[in-house]
Design a protein that fits this description.
This protein is an alpha/beta fold. It is built from 7 helices and 9 strands; from the N terminus they run βαααβαβαβαβββββα. Strands 2-1-3-4-9-8-7-5-6 form a 9-stranded mixed sheet. A hairpin with a 2-residue loop joins strand 8 and strand 9. The longest helix is centred in the N-terminal third of the chain and has 16 residues. The mean pLDDT is about 95.
Amino acid sequence: MSENASPAPLRVTVWNEFRHERKNPAVAAIYPNGIHECVAGVFRDANAAAGAGDAPEFAVRTATLDEPEHGLPPAVLDATDVLIWWGHEHHREVADEVVARVHARVLEGMGLVVLHSAHLSKIFKALMGTSCSLKWREANDKERLWVVNPAHAVAAGLPEYFELPAEEMYGEPFGIPEPDELVFVSWFTGGEVFRSGACWRRGGGRVFYFRPGHETYPTYHDANVRRVLLNAVRWARPAGVKLSARCPNTAPLEPLPVAA
């Protein structure tokens, strides 16, 4: 690449079950084109804000549960730098073959951003190796998200805390391994707290879990939430070295002594 060439855009794939929006009018009213399109709009808006003369920072596509191979055939995953995953009621319908494919790509270096009730998705549980269970309540709690690691890249541009006027409650204990880095802690009207923004490294890939996003609330229209998604994808981008899952037999660099 020449000195003046623009860097390649960060390739983002947004995955969503896309079932609630088609069967629940209340969800369709909030996300008429699907949660995936609303989230994808975060990155399209960032490209537009950069100006017409600038190369786009992101190349974004979407994929949904009912597409062939859930929209995630090898060619799509090979062309994805960061995968965003929203799931809720249909985790068991995701084919194990596709989960294994995503898992391998994360270990190779692809970033993964896991949203809301995708804490029980097959891929997140496989990467965490734990139950990923929690307490919950859907009762219009106010959620106050405290930035507990303001120096972290995912917290860039955020205030000390921000609030969502109505959200589903998630409460501790949260059955996850100790995060490598904790960015957000939530408090709810009912008094519960929750580790709502957590980071891990798995193989060559980075994983970020972000709690808000129940489908009956307009959470993904919130400016601070959209800022978190933008920051998270930038943080989770591959480091530039693709790790192999293979275990090759390797010749020595120098002659070995002859065994007696």
